Fold this protein.
Amino acid sequence: VFGFAILGLLIYAGFKSPDMFIAREVLIHATPEKIFPYVNNSKKSFEWMPWMTEDPGISIQFSGPSDGVGSVASWESKAQMGVGRAEIVESVENKLVKTELNYVKPMEMAQTAELSLTPTSEGTIVRWSVKGQKSFVFRLMCIFANADKMIGASFEKGLSLLKSLSEDGAK
């Protein structure tokens, strides 16, 4: 019976969609020009991204230019974040930053993250999204844990920090 249950879970995970898309957004009472430096610079992005508090043992190295295309952050941790690399691959001033994420451990996976800035009469809507393909192991894990809820919560925390940084002194 136990073997059939395991087999059933494996089959179910195999039929789950490998596509992943998660997004969150926030209205920040600041101009895109005020916010953009925090999303277009690998070092500055770690001032608001939640990974440092979620995984305090993380070690991060930066390479390439400090801003824009080619700016790279590589990390290594024995805990939650594992080993990976993020490289800015597209940058449109005050509008958009796309980053290719490549995870090596605890499992290999590639994703594309996007931060878009849309000006409004009240400030700027910042949208943080990630898309990619879930590995079989990740699909199996998602049977028991909601990836949108877990990753989305981290995005919400990060966007809240970005909001605080950007609105401080913005007026």
Remarks:
- The chain has a mean pLDDT of 87.
- The helical segments are 2-15, 32-39, 42-45, 51-54, 136-141, 147-167.
